[in-house]
Specification:
By secondary structure, the chain is of the alpha+beta class. The chain has 3 helices and 5 strands. It has a single domain, classed as Nuclear Transport Factor 2, Chain: A, CATH 3.10.450.50. Helices cover 30% and strands 36% of the residues. The protein is globular and about 40 Å long.
């Protein structure tokens, strides 16, 4: 398996494990010695990430994260995902996420994201995913 494929598997397992309700395991298995966060509303470090996931799951216990695409180049892995906070609720169709992860030695050490609400109506029939 190439390093790129391995890095993609690490990110998918990390992301799904965390948002399926076990961020402690995701951090223990997949975080490197540091975790730098570039989202201006999030703090650096594993404790902040764990706290955020617990908060989000507390607010939206049925949330679902569906990774639609994953791309890897060098030490970066990018995911395009649908975060559905309230599955089945047409008034809250969720968010489109683009997450960028940097890995060192197969571990997640840095994160950037772009978040956009999924609109109820679009100007085209293409969809966001």
């Amino acid at each position: 398996m190439s390093d790129l494929e391995h890095n993609k598997q690490v990110v998918v397992d990390y992301y799904q494990t965390a948002f399926n309700g076990n961020p402690e395991k995701a951090v223990a298995d997949h975080f490197g010695p540091t975790y730098v966060q570039h989202n201006p509303e999030a703090e650096d470090g594993p404790e902040a990430f764990i706290g955020f996931v617990h908060y989000l799951r507390g607010e939206f216990p049925n949330l679902r994260l569906d990774i639609k695409r994953i791309i890897a180049e060098g030490d970066l892995v990018v995911t395009h995902s649908h975060l559905d906070l309230e599955p089945g609720n047409p008034d809250n169709p969720g968010q489109a996420l683009a997450d960028y992860f940097r890995l060192e030695n197969g571990k997640v050490v840095e994160h950037w994201d772009v978040i956009q609400p999924v609109p109820a109506k679009a100007a085209n029939p293409n969809g966001m995913f």
